[in-house]
């Protein structure tokens, strides 16, 4: 029973990471109808930036905030420079640019920071387990951070003028222009936010899985699975889906398939969702766009 | 009266297809100009050209300032509100959020009192305040679209077939409110209408468009009373 | 062939004769080109260079498979490396565990990949193109893990992989093993490219392209879009699987880490750089995938990846037709110059 409870709690902790990355994916999907296949690599790159800042001697939380700001700027820059010219291009061309970004980021990391696995510090006391061994300090802390981020993002989109404008631009670009919203900049801001959220997810998972250029690949897969499960066009659904696949992964890993096939489990979830309920649990019904 | 909007030798089109072949048109400050014509004559394209939603050549002047080939959002920020065909409301958002977006570019403090004014024009929108726009009836959506446009406090209001698909009673309602708006706000209006009778009744100046060229122009009343024009172009 | 059956060509009889001459000329050029491509390396290349060319040919076949589904049918696959892997492992397992001759493993590998392609394509193809891209990407990421799985280790060789024996050249050819294998792969590649060219000019090929260009019209014309798309996907998977099988024979070794997500991405890059929706494009793509990393690796280990990414993005911006579109692009530029 204790084992099951621990798997559940651990599932929620990793689920928070998946939920964050899923949210980042869905934010960009909603406004552009493209999936950023480079989202994972961008997050890993941000985590390397954080490690560099920490190694320079900055206190953890200052490095944390700086990394978020740098990642935000990086996201805005990528959208403005690389994706803006592609707004009217085919889906294939856009997928191609994402794949190109993935290649550049992944290999640039290998080039700059080399391929060896690196330890990444956790800001949360991790020496003694809390709540009678149920949860480690890092699990608790990272869950709090991801929940906090998700909460802030919710408040931002739900209650601020800028958040409303970003939602409007995502739903209906031409009407948004008619009320004076600068749609192009809203897309860039969305990219910035997605990159910042990804950076936080990267910094929270790195102490657990260690930092290397491939770190986010499996996480991206679970985020895809979570986004699909919750509904690819529904940010709230994607967050719930992210937590759900986190729990499924941990329970499945412990009792079903073992850790060897964790990625295959994510693939299985993706295929199951597409077969059973392609619109996801909370998504609008997907019209076959052929 | 001074001219609020002036089009001079305006050409526009989509890709290789040219739709407008040199339009000259004026909307007076506080005046109403009606643009009439058959389907495909280029009426909607004219409105889209004013808003920078299609590629154009020629001059578009708003209160003395050239606005041709500016971005749509910049034209909106200069006080041009467009109620396009298909209404341009945000279906996924609530009525409240549509109101807020209508006033998105405004920095003044009178936005809330303007909300009240809109409720005065369209009381039904107050009841639908927290409802998704997509769930409103056709008439309510048209009201929301007009309210959204007015909340910009525009100098110029572009209306694309506000009567389209609505029951006659609701159309009467909406035009009644548009008259009030015109008097209260002093906004210039350029209106495209299939229902020529209705539009000529409302407008003080009118243009008749045929395959991208203006074939008749003049005071709305004269056009309304000209039997020949009525028979050959307006078909009633 | 299709021109002579075309009723339009029959009514335009005077035009048809020069057209047929053109076809004959083309066949001669293709045949001559093939003999040159086959003979020159066999005569002059070292065995390592021959090995690289053999690999380039297998990649060209794999990219051809990908191009059929992505380029001609508009369905984006980011996971064709998975079929390459399945083809390679099928051949490896059949050769080492069942003593099946190398040539007999090829149709089996193709068939298995076709069936798997059908199975994966079926749920994803009915939805928008991005779902297929996402699903195939997930497959590509998961493949090495499945190949390493302990439950199938006896067959796959697990993390260590499996060694194969390179086939001996039949004596009557008078070639050494590397030369023979190069010729063997080249002949299969030529047959597959011819088959693909014929397919694309057939009724089915036109249906595939019209689904890519205008799905709504295709549906209105009564095409069974899901059926054509799943079958195209299956065919494409089979061709790429066959390429994988050939690569296993050429490399004499299969291991999970040769089939990581990078492989799928490389095939995708090769397709874009060669020319999306071009028959000859995959040939350039195959050469690119084999030789560019070799050149780039002399700079740094990570350099090929960075260069791949940059080249991919540059091609998408500047030369979306790929290498195959290069002559046409230059022609258009020259015509513009001469006109204005």
UniProtKB/TrEMBL annotation, chain A:
Annotated TM spans: 6-28, 60-79, 91-113, 133-157, 185-209, 215-232, 239-257, 263-286
Keyword annotations of the record: Amino-acid transport, Cell membrane, Membrane, Transmembrane, Transmembrane helix, Transport
Membrane topology: Multi-pass membrane protein
Subcellular location, principal: membrane
Intracellular or extracellular location(s): Cell membrane
Source organism, top-level taxon: Bacteria
InterPro entries listed in its UniProt record: ABC_transp_permease (IPR001851), BCAA_transport_permease (IPR052157)
Pfam families to which the protein is assigned, alphabetical: BPD_transp_2 (PF02653)
Secretion signal span: none
Alphabetized PANTHER family for the sequence: ABC TRANSPORTER PERMEASE PROTEIN, BRANCHED-CHAIN AMINO ACID TRANSPORT SYSTEM PERMEASE PROTEIN LIVH
Protein family: Belongs to the binding-protein-dependent transport system permease family. LivHM subfamily.
Protein name, UniProt field: Branched-chain amino acid ABC transporter permease
Organism name: Roseomonas alba
TrEMBL record, chain B:
Gene Ontology molecular function: any one: ATP binding
Keyword Metal-binding among UniProt keywords: no
Pfam family for this entry, one: ABC_tran
Gene3D superfamilies: P-loop containing nucleotide triphosphate hydrolases
Keywords annotated in UniProt: Amino-acid transport, ATP-binding, Nucleotide-binding, Transport
Occurrences of domain ABC transporter (ranges): 5-236
InterPro entries: AAA+_ATPase (IPR003593), ABC_transporter-like_ATP-bd (IPR003439), ABC_transporter-like_CS (IPR017871), BCAA_Transport_ATP-bd_LivF (IPR052156), P-loop_NTPase (IPR027417)
SUPFAM superfamilies, A to Z: P-loop containing nucleoside triphosphate hydrolases
Membership in a protein family: Belongs to the ABC transporter superfamily.
Record's protein name: ABC transporter ATP-binding protein
Provenance organism: Roseomonas alba
From TrEMBL, chain C:
Domain of life, per lineage: Bacteria
Localization terms from the record: Cell membrane
Keyword Membrane recorded: yes
Keyword RNA-binding: no
InterPro entries per UniProt: ABC_transp_permease, LivM-like
Annotated membrane topology: Multi-pass membrane protein
Annotated keywords: Cell membrane, Membrane, Transmembrane, Transmembrane helix
Ranges annotated as spanning the membrane: 23-44, 50-69, 81-98, 104-122, 129-147, 180-200, 233-255, 267-292, 299-319
Protein name (record): Branched-chain amino acid ABC transporter permease
């Amino acid at each position: 029973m204790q084992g099951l409870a621990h798997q559940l709690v651990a599932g929620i902790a990793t689920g928070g990471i998946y939920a964050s990355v899923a949210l980042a994916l869905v934010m960009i999907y909603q406004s552009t109808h493209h999936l950023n296949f480079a989202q994972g690599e961008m997050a890993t790159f941000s985590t390397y930036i954080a490690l560099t800042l920490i190694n320079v001697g900055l206190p953890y939380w200052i490095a944390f905030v700086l990394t978020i700001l740098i990642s935000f700027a990086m996201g805005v820059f990528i959208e403005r420079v690389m994706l803006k010219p592609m707004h009217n291009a085919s889906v294939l061309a856009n997928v191609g640019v994402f794949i190109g970004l993935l290649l550049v980021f992944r290999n640039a990391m290998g080039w700059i920071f080399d391929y060896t696995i690196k330890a990444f510090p956790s800001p949360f006391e991790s020496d003694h387990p809390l709540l009678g061994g149920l949860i480690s300090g890092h699990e608790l802390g990272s869950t709090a951070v991801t929940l906090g981020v998700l909460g802030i993002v919710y408040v931002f989109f739900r209650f601020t003028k800028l958040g409303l404008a970003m939602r409007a631009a995502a739903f209906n670009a031409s009407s948004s222009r008619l009320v004076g919203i600068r749609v192009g900049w809203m897309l860039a801001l969305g990219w910035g936010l997605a990159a910042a959220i990804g950076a936080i997810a990267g910094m929270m998972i790195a102490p657990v899985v260690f930092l290397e250029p491939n770190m986010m690949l499996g996480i991206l897969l679970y985020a895809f699975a979570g986004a699909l499960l919750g509904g690819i066009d529904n940010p709230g659904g994607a967050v719930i889906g992210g937590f759900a696949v986190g729990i499924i992964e941990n329970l499945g890993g412990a009792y079903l398939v073992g850790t060897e096939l964790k990625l295959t489990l994510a693939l299985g979830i993706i295929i199951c969702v597409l077969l059973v309920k392609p619109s996801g649990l909370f998504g609008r019904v997907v019209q076959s766009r052929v | 009266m001074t001219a609020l909007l002036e089009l001079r030798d305006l050409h526009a089109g989509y890709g290789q297809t040219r739709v407008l072949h040199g339009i000259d048109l004026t909307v007076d400050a506080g005046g109403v100009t009606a643009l009439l014509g058959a389907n495909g004559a280029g009426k909607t394209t004219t409105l889209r050209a004013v808003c920078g939603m299609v590629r154009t050549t020629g001059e578009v002047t708003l209160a003395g300032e050239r606005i041709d080939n500016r971005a749509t959002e910049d034209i909106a920020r200069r006080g041009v509100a467009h109620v396009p065909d298909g209404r341009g409301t945000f279906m996924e958002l609530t009525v409240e959020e549509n109101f807020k977006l209508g006033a998105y570019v405004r920095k003044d403090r009178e936005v809330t009192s303007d909300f009240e004014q809109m409720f005065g024009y369209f009381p039904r929108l107050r009841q639908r305040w927290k409802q998704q726009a997509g769930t409103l009836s056709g008439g309510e959506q048209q009201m929301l679209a007009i309210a959204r446009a007015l909340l910009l406090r525009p100098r110029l209001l572009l209306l694309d077939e506000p009567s389209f698909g609505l029951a006659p009673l609701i159309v009467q309602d909406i035009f009644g409110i548009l008259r009030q708006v015109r008097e209260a706000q002093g906004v210039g209006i350029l209106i495209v209408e299939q229902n020529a009778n209705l539009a000529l009744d409302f407008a003080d100046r009118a243009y008749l468009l045929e395959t991208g060229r203006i074939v008749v122009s003049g005071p709305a009343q004269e056009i309304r009373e000209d039997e020949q024009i009525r028979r050959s172009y307006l078909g009633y | 062939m299709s021109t002579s059956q075309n009723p339009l060509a029959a009514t335009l009889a005077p035009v048809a004769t020069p057209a047929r001459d053109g076809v004959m000329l083309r066949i001669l050029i293709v045949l001559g080109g093939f003999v040159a491509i086959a003979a020159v390396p066999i005569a002059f290349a070292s065995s390592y260079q021959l090995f690289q060319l053999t690999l380039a040919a297998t990649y060209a076949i794999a990219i051809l498979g990908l191009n059929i589904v992505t380029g001609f049918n508009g369905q984006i696959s980011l996971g064709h490396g998975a079929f390459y892997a399945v083809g390679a492992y099928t051949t490896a397992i059949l050769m080492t565990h069942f003593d099946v001759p190398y040539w007999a493993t090829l149709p089996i590998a193709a068939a298995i990949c076709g069936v798997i392609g059908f199975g994966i394509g079926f749920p994803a193809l009915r939805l928008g193109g991005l779902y297929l891209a996402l699903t195939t990407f997930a497959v590509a990421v998961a493949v090495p893990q499945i190949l390493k799985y302990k439950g199938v280790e006896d067959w796959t060789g697990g993390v260590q992989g499996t060694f194969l024996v390179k086939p001996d050249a039949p004596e009557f050819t008078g070639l050494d093993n590397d030369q023979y294998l190069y010729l063997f792969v080249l002949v299969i590649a030529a047959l597959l490219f011819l088959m693909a060219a014929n397919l694309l000019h057939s009724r089915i090929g036109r249906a595939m392209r019209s689904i890519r260009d205008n799905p709504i019209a295709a549906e209105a014309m009564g095409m069974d879009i899901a059926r054509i798309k799943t079958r195209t996907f299956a065919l494409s998977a089979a061709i790429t699987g066959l390429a994988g099988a050939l690569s296993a024979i050429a490399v004499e070794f299969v291991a999970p880490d040769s089939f990581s997500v990078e492989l799928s991405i490389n095939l995708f890059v090769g397709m874009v750089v060669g020319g999306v929706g071009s028959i000859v494009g995959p040939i350039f793509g195959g050469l690119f995938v084999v030789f560019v990393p070799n050149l780039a690796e002399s700079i740094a280990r990570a350099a090929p990846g960075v260069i791949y990414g940059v080249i991919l993005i540059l091609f998408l911006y500047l030369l979306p037709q790929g290498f195959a579109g290069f002559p046409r692009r230059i022609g258009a530029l020259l015509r513009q110059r001469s006109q204005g």
